User: Fold this.
Amino acid sequence: MKKIVVSAIVIAVCAAVVFTACSKDKDANGTTTLKVRMTDAPTLADEVNVDIREVRVRFGDDTLTGWTSLSTYAGVYDLLGLQNGVDTLLAVGSVPTGMVREIRFVLGSNNSIKVGGVLFPLTIPSGSESGLKIKVNKQLSASLDSLLIDFDAALSVHQTGSGDYHLKPVLKIK
Assistant:
């Protein structure tokens, strides 16, 4: 009987240690350093250039006060240079630890596509006004978290009947 009681106590202590060691630190009042990275899947174009001016993150409702701007490395990014495991850091910032609902890329006007050595303008319907949004719904960890966004150029670029190129972004969280 004594052996059974001692064994039960040892098992209970081991279980408590395992559950405590595996629990995540969810400090609701803390902050998280959030990094937003971007990558791409292959396409047949020579270049797909997207002008990213700002990266914003939404934690609450979709109002102007609900969006937080991150420190963004603004510039024109060739999505095709971000293939085969290559990514780039777009933005970083200290944000409240919590649930990220959406990310928005605010775009500039220097968007283009190069096909067969010829550079064409790349039109992004409402991209310069509202930006590109992607639903995230991810709980951030306590100290450092990173989101990798796959900007799929092959599925995003469409040529119209008149020969113009439009970007209808296909963005995925990886």
Q: What stands out?
A: The chain has one domain: 27-173. DSSP finds three helices and 14 strands in the chain.
